[in-house]
Amino acid sequence: MTSHDALSHPPVHIVGQLVDARLSLLDRQVVDVDGRPVGVLDDLELTDVASPLEPGTPPPEVTSLVHGPIVLERIFGGRRPDAHLLRIGWDAVAKLGPAIELAAPASELPTSWVESWLRDRVIVRIPGGRHVPR
Amino acid sequence: MFLGDLVAAPVLQDGRRVGYVADVRLLVPPHTPGQRVGTPRVYGIVVCPRRTASFVGYERTGVREPRLLAAFFRWRARGSFLVLWPDLARVGENGVDLRLDARRWSADLDSRPQL
Amino acid sequence: MKRLFAVALGVLTAIGGFLDIGDLVTNAVVGSRFGWSLAWVVVVGVVGICLFAQMAGRVAAVSGRATFELVRERMGPRLGLANLAASFLINLLTLTAEVGGIALALQLASSVHYLLWVPVAALAVWQVIWRVGFDVMENVTGLVGLLLVGFAVAFFLLGPDWTQLTDQLLQRAPHGESPATYWFYAVALFGAALTPYEVFFFSSGAVEEGWSSEDLAQSRLNVLVGFPLGGLLSLAIAGCAALTLMPLGVEVTTLSQVVLPVAEAGGRVLLIAIILGVVAATFGAALETTLSTGYTLAQFFGWSWGKFRAPAEAARFHITMIVCLLVGVAVLATGVDPVMVTEISVVFSAVALPLTYLPILIVANDPDYLGDQVNPRLLNIAGQVYFVLILVASVAAIPLMIVTGVGR
Lengths: 134, 115, 408
Prior knowledge:
The structure holds three protein chains of three kinds.
Chain A: E1 17-20, H1 21-24, E2 29-31, E3 37-40, E4 43-46, E5 62-67, H2 71-76, E6 86-89, E7 93-96, E8 100-102, H3 113-121
Parallel strand pairs in A: 2-8
Antiparallel strand pairs in A: 2-3, 4-5, 5-6, 7-8
Chain B: H1 3-6, E1 10-13, E2 16-28, E3 41-48, H2 67-76, E4 81-84, E5 88-92, E6 95-98
Chain C: H1 2-18, H2 21-34, H3 39-63, H4 67-110, H5 114-131, H6 134-145, H7 149-157, H8 162-169, H9 179-194, H10 196-208, H11 216-244, H12 255-301, H13 315-333, H14 338-363, H15 367-370, H16 377-404
Helix pairs in contact in C: 1-6, 1-11, 2-9, 2-11, 2-12, 2-14, 3-9, 3-10, 3-11, 3-14, 4-5, 4-10, 4-12, 4-13, 4-14, 5-12, 5-13, 6-12, 7-11, 7-12, 9-14, 9-16, 10-12, 11-12, 12-13, 14-16
């Protein structure tokens, strides 16, 4: 045991699993029910809490997964208008692991307009664009 | 509120900076009606004295390999601790305030029994 | 029988797939100037790529996560983006060099100026990515690339002077170059053997082909047998240059000089075989680098990717690759020497190595990803030794490049 391990563990009995958000959730791939990439988890939205916190305030809960073109804001600062965020409710999550697996197909989830635009305006107009390479 | 706003935010206690939020620990309950994975709630925050020190989590997990890298990253994140949610006095975009009597717990993830 | 065939095919394509324009040019240049004095770097480099390719492949097979997904996840957005910027630019540079290499090889075969071949080569690369399945693509380019075995044939036909080569190998022969130049080429060879696109491609390929834990043995065999055999071919290329060009004081600056010893040793038939092999190897590598530009961007940003999907199901992935090919063609159209582009790309590869190989080493130990398939201890010791080597090469690359004026 090194000196910085000298702190003890909280004497609380927990029911469930402890997950460090940044270590095991943020920046992992989000995939749909068929394993298709939906995005990379950029953030988690939490329920709001009052400030300052009165003793006994229940902890905030995760409401949704947030992804979309906001990685640059995470790196360079600033904030994208709320409407640009792509949100997926936590109730759609099917499994946590090396990727965050969703219970829904990608077609039922919010998608990037860039992907749809490029697909509809460019890719499908090139011969062979709809065929799986064989 | 976004969880990402908390990550790397300064942590203050009695007006003094004691570190930065290295991570937000969530408790995922085994069951929430109608869901496959229970709705996580904030369990506490992991505080590291240095802003950029904890990025691969060796100080919290049971992983000890590869030896030298693990030892190096554990050393970089030395002095990290966990503060439970009830010990937080204020959570905002400018940082997190700890209560004056906030307890510091081990930031270790693995060695406690999970039910 | 079918199983044996699959094993053989995997190994053979790994040999053909190991060599690209960077290896061809750098080994010939080094051979013509240093003989086998730098052969040890090829050995060190091959062991390194075996270690890390095998780890990246195992992570991809067990967890389904390709290397650049790990880069983002482990390094976080900030360092991840720095790595993306570096890797992407190097990929683009390598892609340009490979397309230039195809064009130069076709010029050798046809006497038509290579600049006319550049758009043809780029179009062909894109069509294969657009229409041809992953397996077929890998197997055809890998197997035709095996014609590069002709370098080994030529090497033996030239009647190698083993005492001289051994002296060079054991650093007993003066090569008349400065230590800075010697070490510059050591870093370049190291970078050429460990080019990051190889692991991006290898791990993404594991996902493309739907590998699981059961395919690990095959994957390990491909890497551990195929890559070293590819490394032997690298030594043969350097040896050919050492035997024919070094005594004449000719330094390799063009692709035709790379294949010159083959013509001298084996005549027209062997020359044709080698040129075909060079076309296939550079074509295969052009495919791999083009795909890698798509893989890295898509995996960092979480776009849908993969050749196992129709292009319409992975629009941004395919647009990225088309744009990158166009950029490569535009760069070559300026008349810049593709061999020069190649030399610069392998040096910058060396610079970017640590950012790619650190997350692989870390995740290969993470039971959350790999369960009980994490690295054994011996592999970790080797991995860490290599990580130090990679760091040293990365730090030394740019200063050496400046001091030596790109090895001139």
